[in-house]
Amino acid sequence: MPSDIEIARAATLKPIAQVAERVGIPDEALHNYGKYIAKIDHGFIQSLESRPDGKLILVTAISPTPAGEGKTTTTVGLGDALNRIGKKAVIALREPSLGPCFGMKGGAAGGGRSQVVPMEQINLHFTGDFHAITSAHSLAAALIDNHVYWANELNIDVRRIHWRRVVDMNDRALRAINQSLGGVANGFPREDGFDITVASEVMAVFCLARDLADLEERLGKIVIAETRDRKLVTLKDVKATGAMTVLLKDALQPNLVQTLEGNPALIHGGPFANIAHGCNSVIATRSALKLGEYTVTEAGFGADLGAEKFLDIKCRQAGLKPSAVVIVATVRALKMHGGVDKKSLGSENVEALEKGFANLERHVTNVRNFGLPVVVGVNHFYADTDAEHAKLKELCQSRLGVEAITCKHWAEGGAGAEGLAQAVVKLAEGEQKPLVHAYETEAKLSDKIRAIATKLYGAGDVQIESKAAGKLATFEKDGYGSLPICMAKTQYSFSTDPSLMGAPTGHVIAVRDVRLSAGAGFVVAICGEIMTMPGLPKVPAADTIRLDANGQIDGLF
Q1: CA–CA separation, 379 and 361 (whole Å)
Q2: Which of 225, 343, 532, 535 has the smallest CB count inside 10 Å?
Q3: Is the separation of the CB atoms in 362 and 376 below 8 Å?
Q4: Backbone dihedral region for residue 325 (phi beyond 0: left; psi -120 to 50: alpha; all else: beta)
């Protein structure tokens, strides 16, 4: 099998206008970025409002492991498969961040014969959306410091400026810095730091905004500092929102690309799936729902984080509801959850698979508790055995009463996921129940955290440190008590210990800090050792990325 980049490079892509025509987007609504990428005009997006929505399919996954799950690959494969069986399907994905691309994870354009293309551009600069978000965030930082420098009319307490800087790269050296050194002309020295761009609240706001007016209003609500008498200061107070919206105007138009099979895909936005809600933009999702009969989208990480945030934050704010949910699992990953070392995954081990099944079981149960129909998509790896797949299907049926479909889209493209597509259509066109959220809007913030921890994580209790508890009380006093909770927790476990795999129970979820994301419209609960600026691994992917003699990118995958 050729590498991902070789497969993508060998594909014959359709001109983007042909892809757009398939879903009724006219030439005049496209802003082309070369032959195969275009942005869709704001005016055309607004004209879609009166159209009925198609069916929304959410793709999520078990708790991720180094063995690989293939959530994005399955999303792309399912979209292609739905089109193959005669459904008009559009895919809606997040944009990749440069940090993971040059770090450990690699790109986020799918894999094998289930990719979105042109994959090099998508994984690197694409249409410049992340650069625009970085610039808007940096403009806000500059305006805050400039306000303090010139008389500080708002009486901002420089010890309580919450707005950090961002860059779209993994750079641990920037986590904590001292700024404004060098004398009076450079401002007031203070401690500061950088987050990765995808962790910026600007990114979260960008992805939850309905349109440009909503974007500017949300930006204005972002709390960036406190005064000396502890009053909140917003971006609107420092007059940043107009100029920031100007910088984001073009970026807010969703990006249209295609799959290897020429089917339409909207790729737009990409909030950090820990510190934010980890979903593509509301604008892209809603546009896809208007353009097709089926929209296939994905949530970040495992279902305990990604699907929960998609349902409790994005769906709540945008008025969305999935018609069906696909939970992606692999035999390899379940064996790791059952205690098998990564080096031993090539050997058949039905016993470990059955032990690790507890992780999938909890994810399926959690999603069902939201009132949603579920199917398990088993992403096939070449070393899997028939006995392992048979056992997994039997466990899904006997313990959960759900169907598990073996999918070979990585090797076969959409043809390898037709069985999954048929199962999804059956669920989506069957009986639908109301969406049941994990907690009520009116509940106390601490009770919302406890509900997520106990209902979805299997925790026995929640321990909120005194500083965090004080902040929650302040948020409620200031009128933010009705906001949903965005849990920032390791993706590798239902607990805060990434090494505790499977489906632990009775553990304590420790909340060490909380942050207010008033513009995005949620409160972040930081659990364990989550960082908002990743570092590079000992051997980063960047070591092997280069241009070959023909000027083509090598080593991206």
Answers
A1: 17
A2: 343
A3: no
A4: beta
381 tagged catalytic = yes
Largest CA distance in the chain: 73
Return phi, psi of residue 177, to 5°: -135, 165
Residue 108's pLDDT band (cuts 50, 70, 90) = confident
Asked if 49 and 289 touch (Cβ cutoff 8 Å), the reply is: no
Question: Are the CB atoms for 424 and 324 separated by under 8 Å?
Answer: yes
Q: What pLDDT band is residue 550 in, cutting at 50, 70 and 90?
A: confident
Give the model confidence (pLDDT) of 321-374 as tens digits.
Answer: 999 999 999 999 999 999 999 999 999 999 999 999 999 999 999 999 999 999
463 Cβ partners below 8 Å, 6+ apart? Answer: 508, 509, 510, 511
Question: 0.85 cut: is pTM over it?
Answer: yes
Q: Which of 71, 165, 448, 489 is catalytic?
A: 71
Q: What is the DSSP letter of 124?
A: T
The reply to whether 71 belongs to the active site is yes
Q: Do the Cβ atoms of 283 and 270 come closer than 8 Å?
A: no
Taking residues 37-66, what's their average pLDDT?
Answer: 96
Work out the pLDDT band at 490, boundaries 50, 70, 90. very high
Query: Which residues does the annotation place in the binding site for ATP?
Result: 65-72
What is the pLDDT at residue 105? 65
The residue annotated as part of the active site, out of 22, 88, 105, 231, is 105
Q: Which residues, at least 6 apart from 332, have a Cβ–Cβ distance to it below 8 Å? A: 65, 67, 68, 345, 381, 383, 384
Which position among 73, 234, 285, 330 bears the catalytic label? 73
419 touches 124 (CB < 8 A): no
Residues 6 or more apart in contact with residue 110 via CB below 8 angstroms: 4, 72, 73, 75, 76, 77, 116, 119, 259
Name beta bridge partners: 257. Answer: 265
DSSP 8: H
